[in-house]
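It would be a great kindness if you could assist me with a short task in structural biology. I am sending you one protein, given as its amino acid sequence and as whole-number tokens for its backbone shapes. I would ask you to consider whether the tokens describe a fold that such a sequence might reasonably adopt. The full record is reproduced below for your convenience.
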Amino acid sequence: MPEPLKDPLLSIVIPVYNEHEWVEELVRRVQAQPFRMELILIDDGSTDGTRDILPRIQQAWDNVRVLMHEHNQGKGAALRTGFAAARGDIIVIQDADLEYDPRDYARLLEPMLDGRADVVYGSRFLGGPHRVLNFHHYIANQGLTFLSNLLTNMNLTDMETCYKIFRREILDGMTLTSDRFGFEPEFTARISQRGLKVYEVPISYSGRDYDEGKKITWRDGVAALWIIVKSRFDA
């Protein structure tokens, strides 16, 4: 059983791509949470002015580090850059938009702090408040989660969630190669192969439409299907 953690340092890893409208507010919301934290923002080749905002954020907060990709590589690549720089006991993946609420950190961390979990997923489908959005997106998400569960023998309700929180040491020796949104099924396959203790907790969700800046597309869903199958067999 994992050891309980007392007053851990959280590494909040935040991939950023074309989020000039939201990233400052997101950082303020994260900083308002009552935990010891470092924030690692990885700009993944933004072209909308985000890269001009991030140095100002880094200057304003002494626990913020900004890393830059010269061109867009994808969420998975940005996360790998952030993981390599993380110094905390626990890693928290946080999107740079405002779809996911940092006020959920307390409930997400509870199973980890008391020693029940190595990894915690925040599920959008376990009863938390959420914005009503496209039914087809919901069906696609559920289909990908079902296939992932079938091949990993897990019973997650939301494999594609942004909120994945885990002890930093589980990354030791873990091979992650997906550059885009395929990170989600690949990471899920890797933790299932290790037999780690995984919990899900309900979270709130304020999803965006494409005209509001949502970036994942049907092509990412198709790619995720391949990664789910591939990751099952290449431990």
